[in-house]
Write a structure and sequence with these properties.
The complex is a heterodimer of chains A (552) and B (122). Chain A is α+β, with helices and mostly antiparallel strands. Helices cover 59% and strands 15% of the residues of chain A. In chain A, helix 2 packs antiparallel against helix 3 and helix 15 runs antiparallel to helix 17. The longest helix of chain A is centred in the N-terminal third of the chain and has 66 residues. Chain B has one domain: Response regulator (Rossmann fold), CATH 3.40.50.2300. A 5-stranded parallel beta sheet of chain B has the order 2-1-3-4-5, sandwiched between helices. In chain B, helix 1 crosses helix 5 and helix 2 packs parallel to helix 3. The chains are: A alpha+beta (552), B alpha/beta (122).
């Protein structure tokens, strides 16, 4: 019923103001129609003969309403409104005696077309109907011999003014509302479009991410913030040889109870979950496999943790190689040194004539065996140091040490080797260097010995000068300066590399495998120091090691 | 106090060299080549003046034997010297023993060292 009524009064046109006015006209027409029908029925029921005029007026009114309705519906709302208002004004003019219309009770009825005009036509139309009404009452006043009713005319104009104002405000408000609505529509369209684009981008991104995950060899699981697995790539399933339903959607706590995971790995993973930490990377044993694990938390744009990405890498082969390497190092360390120690010991016993007097030649031979064995032992030590440093197993200790003792030991080890080459090995200590420092005496000795050994090796005549200096308040340094052949500038960047000597062929001429300086560099790094080299070909080389000064 | 030096070393050649060095240093030498025998000897036998103990032994480790020596009052005057190929391991025991000898160990150095350790009255 409501719908039907709505359809009855509503008229769709492209102009919203026109549509609104025509709808209002329909409502007014409906009202007038209903009143006319009610009047007709009442008149017929009470006494048709007495109320004949009312019946005629009602019938005319119903007919007029119908005609205006169709004009409004099919043709023009404006015309329909003008006809309606015109008729209304005429009805008002003849609704009472001329005297009453000119100056009596019928005066007020003219306000109805004035107000309606501002609603049904343009706002200013109220003034037109105000003027028309004023003319009508003036004509009627004249016809009954009275002067026009100026207060009524003034009243009409005031009503017209108020109607004009309110209608105009309403129209303006509606106009603004329409502008706002249009803008809103535009914004909605834009936003919808942006949303659609962003959804599309996200879809592409997700597809790309999935492709990346699928293509990489590392196993990746993505967890939400409660450690439920939300995404897993094929590499992970293959690596762990597990069906996807045992991983996806499962909580990680449940997952790490798997019997193939070794207890140590379970503890590490459990700690990672419990503390929400992202360890730098650790290893776990899964059946026969060794896996390295890395994790990173995921944060949203507000900095809130929304989960963790965990990456598993198959480390089995590397772990095996490392194990073999450390086994090899252990074997070298013990099984190679023991027989060499025996060779050295027996040679010493010959040299010392433990079992009876030896000839000079025999003693020289024994010394030769000792020298070569020493070289071999030194080489093994260097290889072991290098291997340990590479594996990060070599640590630097800190204990009180006397710099002077470093030099004493240096002389006892290398004086003979230097003098055999007719080189002078000199040393000095700065007065302001403390007598006792804190550091790793064995490793400092190794640094010094390696540097001086290197200098002896590459110096044909002249001297090697060792200086221990205090460089500033917080640092001290070792300097080894020689008068050797020097290092070409282009080769300086490479001299600290493992198994490297300047010019490949010199290895055989000068002996050694090129580990000495590499070890120096790494030891100095472990001590948080730095090593510098200055060199001039055919003039000499100066190595400077700068170390943090620590006093016990 | 006897002038006995007890050498616990599984490598025959090193044991020979160490024995000769200590003999040259003026000691009477007793050699044991494995950890189990050494354990037995330490528990039942008399205390030597010097124990030269290899940390890498079959059956019972040098560390275990060192614990026995340190835990027994009768060894309170015994000088303990340990031998190891591992300098780091040597450092770990530096506070518990009189001397840590890192392999390679020189015949001459061992001889001269033990000569100095020998009681001056002898």
């Amino acid at each position: 019923m409501n719908n039907y009524f709505d359809r009855f009064i509503n008229i769709a046109t492209t102009d919203p103001d026109d549509s609104r006015r025509r709808s209002i006209l329909n409502i007014l027409l409906a009202g007038v129609g209903v009143i006319s029908i009610a009047g007709l029925i009442t008149a017929v029921i009470v006494n048709p003969r007495v109320n004949f005029t009312i019946i005629v007026i009602s019938l005319i009114s119903i007919g007029g309403v119908t005609i205006i309705y169709f004009i409004n519906l099919r043709w023009s709302g404006r015309t329909a409104s003008i006809i309606f208002l015109g008729l209304l004004t005429v009805i008002c003019a003849f609704s009472d005696t001329p005297l009453e219309v000119a100056a009596g009770r019928a005066l007020f009825v003219f306000t109805i077309p004035i107000i309606m005009a501002s609603i049904l036509l343009t706002p200013w139309s109220s003034f037109v109907f105000g003027v028309i009404s004023s003319i009508i009452i003036s004509v009627f006043a004249n016809s009954v011999g009275r002067i026009p009713n100026s207060p009524a005319i003034l009243g009409y104009m005031l009503v017209a003014l108020v109607s004009w104002l309110s209608s105009r405000s309403l129209e303006q408000a509606l106009k603004e509302l329409r502008v706002i609505n249009a803008n809103l529509d535009k914004i909605v369209v834009e936003r919808t479009q942006a949303l659609a684009e962003s959804l599309e981008r996200e879809r592409l991104e997700a597809g790309r991410n999935q492709a990346i995950l699928n293509s990489i060899a590392d196993g990746v699981i993505v967890f939400d913030k409660n450690w439920n697995a939300t995404m897993v790539n094929p590499a992970f399933r293959i690596m762990l040889d597990l069906p996807v339903n045992l991983i996806l959607g499962k909580n990680f706590r449940e997952f790490i109870e798997h019997p193939r995971l070794a207890a140590q790995g379970r503890n590490l993973l459990s700690a990672m979950i419990d503390h929400d930490t992202q360890p730098l990377g650790f290893r776990i044993e899964w059946g026969e496999k060794t896996l390295s694990v890395g994790a990173a938390q995921v944060y949203d744009s507000r900095g809130e943790n929304i989960g963790t990405v965990t990456v598993f890498r198959d480390f089995t082969r590397e772990a095996e190689v490392e194990r073999l390497k450390s086994t090899f190092v252990a074997i070298v360390s013990h099984e190679l040194r023991t027989p060499l120690n025996a060779i050295l010991g027996y040679a010493e016993m010959f040299k010392e004539s433990v079992y009876g007097p030896m000839t000079d030649k025999q003693i020289n031979m024994a010394a030769g065996i000792m020298k070569n064995t020493d070289q071999l032992l030194g080489l093994i030590s260097d290889l072991l140091d290098e291997a340990q440093m590479e594996a990060g197993q070599l640590t630097i200790t800190n204990a009180p040490l006397k710099p002077a003792e470093l030099l004493e030991t240096l002389h006892s080890l290398l004086d003979k080797i230097a003098s055999d080459k007719r080189l002078r090995l000199t040393s000095e200590i700065d007065d302001d260097l403390p007598d006792i420092l804190s550091g790793d005496a064995d490793r400092l000795q190794q640094i010094l010995t390696n540097l001086v050994n290197n200098s002896i090796k590459f110096t044909e005549h002249g001297e090697i000068c060792v200086r221990l200096r205090r460089t500033d308040d917080a640092k001290w340094g070792l300097e080894v300066e020689d008068t050797g052949r020097g290092i070409p500038e282009a080769d300086i960047p490479y001299i600290f590399e493992t198994f490297r000597q300047v010019e490949g062929s010199t290895t055989r001429v000068h002996g050694g495998v090129g580990l000495g300086l590499a070890i120096v560099k790494q030891l100095v790094n472990l001590m948080n120091g730095e090593v510098k080299v200055e060199s001039k070909v055919d003039v000499g080389t100066k190595f400077t090691v700068i170390l943090p000064l620590a006093v016990p | 106090m006897s002038e006995l030096a007890l050498i616990i070393e599984d490598d025959e050649d090193l044991a020979n060299i160490f024995s000769e060095a200590l003999r040259s240093g003026g000691f009477e030498v007793e050699h044991i080549a494995d950890g189990r025998l050494a354990q037995e000897r330490l528990k039942t036998g008399n205390a030597p003046f010097i124990v030269l103990l290899d940390m890498h032994l079959p059956y019972i480790s040098g560390a275990d034997l060192l614990t026995i020596i340190k835990g027994d009052e009768k060894f309170s005057k015994t000088m303990t010297l340990i031998t190891t190929a591992d300098a780091l391991m040597g450092n770990m025991y530096r506070d518990q023993v009189d001397f840590v000898l890192v392999k390679p160990i020189s015949f001459v150095q061992l001889r001269d060292l033990t000569r100095r350790l020998k009681p001056t009255s002898q």
